[in-house]
Farnesyl diphosphate synthase (Kaistia geumhonensis), 302 residues
Amino acid sequence: MPATLFSDRLAETARSVEACLDGLLAANPAPGEIARPARLREAMRYALLGGGKRLRPALTREVARLFGRGDEGVTRAGAAIECLHGYSLVHDDLPAMDDDDLRRGRPTVHKAFDEATAILAGDALQTLAFDILADPATDADATIRAELVLGLARASGLGGMAGGQMLDLEAERAAPGEDGILVLQAMKTGALIRFSCEAGAILGGADAEARARIRRYGEIVGLAFQLADDLLDVTATPEAMGKATAKDAGRGKATLVSLYGIAATRARLDALVAEAEALLAPFGPAAATLADAARFVALRQS
């Protein structure tokens, strides 16, 4: 893709979040901890510091910036979301789930270490996410911290990402229709992306109307991300993706791409970008980077 304002900000976020995560996963125990086992910490660092676009924390930072906030607390919140996302990838790759050997062009955590270590690394990354959000270093206001913790829990648990993964497993046995696929994708992928946007609004002190716009924007970006992902699973090479492709077709799993076709999926992505731009219009030029973000997600090639 050509360079855009968002792609520049994405690179900036990646550097900031990498540095933050590096510090959070240092060898010395945090207050209240007893010790940090070296192999577990190494597996967590392998899972989190091995690349990735850092899209979710970038969305958090850009929304917070829209509402006038850009301090280290925003970076920490993005790092927490990345910990939660990292945990989901580690567990998704396990033999009991998607059984993947490659992630971002490298062996998955259970291949680089072992299954038990991968399970524990995912568990520890999940709890670290909530540790970061609950820490006053993220925000001095306990009400904001509680709202962030609650929002991430709802986005990632039974009614969000974990529930979506359950629906995804069930879809291998009985393919859902369009409505079922939309619910599955909104939970498994969309919920965490939506919360990434809403977290920026929480941190930035946005009012109820602005938060509702940002929440809907996040839902649109989440759906666009999954549509683009399903499209790439059909059209991209494993080398370009850094992981196996054509997995859904191989398992007989229905996706929106399999229902709509490639051309209609691309048209749907264009419509989602237009809807995102319309939602952001009341914010004026200050939201240009977020409009770029929607286009970036919809047109990505990896």
Summary: The chain has a mean pLDDT of 93. The first strand starts at residue 102 and ends at 103. The chain has one domain: 5-299.
